[in-house]
Amino acid sequence: MASIDDDGWFDSGRAAVRPDWIDYNGHMNVGYYVVAFDQATEALCAHLGIGEAYRRQTDALDLRRRGAPVTYDREVLEAAPLAFRTRIVDHDGKRLHLLHRMFHAGEAGYLAATNELMCLHVDLAQRRAAPFPEVALLRIQRTRRCGTPGLGADGRRRQRRSAYAAGDRRRACRIS
Questions:
Q1: Could you give the 3-state DSSP secondary structure of residue 160?
Q2: Distances (CA, A) of 37 to 30, 63, 89, 99, 146
């Protein structure tokens, strides 16, 4: 069973279910799950150096989402606290394959939904895929290694005993 504290997942933010996200059935409307997951994507992008500030500086480069299937595992109600965890499943020089988890962050702590994304780094002037900047690619690689169970920040296999110590993983996965 998925847990908010599972090892190898990037903490991609928190939110609360807003009143305007609630439908006539009293729970979060399906469309707002994507809005909430988009906030988690933005948190990861900022961490990787390809967030809003990057897009404002480059003016011609952006990260586009291609496909975004969502699973709806359990409902969340108005004002429910949410927590997001993200894993970079795979990547290449122009693409990111992400998996987000949304948890009820209160006492219940259950998995509410998941979202899988394929993101493409695009040169808006050319309207074509473009390589990530080198610094961003290095951050992507390091973040992915930190999210791969059994691998350290240096990409080497770790012993199970010490690989998942919370303090060690936080230091190993910190991006300067």
A1: helix
A2: 11, 15, 16, 10, 21
Model confidence at 133, pLDDT cuts 50, 70, 90, reads: very high
CA–CA dist 42, 81 (Å, integer): 19
The CATH code that applies to domain 10-133 is 3.10.129.10
- The residue count for the chain: 176
- Alpha carbon 158 to chain centroid, angstroms: 24
Q: Tally Cβ neighbours within 10 Å of residue 34.
A: 14
Per the CB < 8 A criterion, the answer to whether 18 and 106 are in contact is no
Neighbours of 174 (CB within 10 A): 10
Other beta carbons within 10 Å of 32: 17
**Domain spans in the chain, listed from the N-terminal domain onward:** 10-133
What is the CB neighbour count within 10 angstroms for residue 35?
13
Tokens (6 digits) for 131: 């390589």
pTM: 0.82
pLDDT 10s digits, 80-109: 999 999 999 999 999 999 999 999 999 889
| Number of alpha carbons in the 13 Å side-chain half-sphere of residue 134 | 0
Which token pair is 54? 């990057």
**What is the helix (H) or strand (E) element at residue 52, kind and residue range?**
helix 52-58
The lowest-confidence range among 26-30, 154-158, 167-171 is 167-171
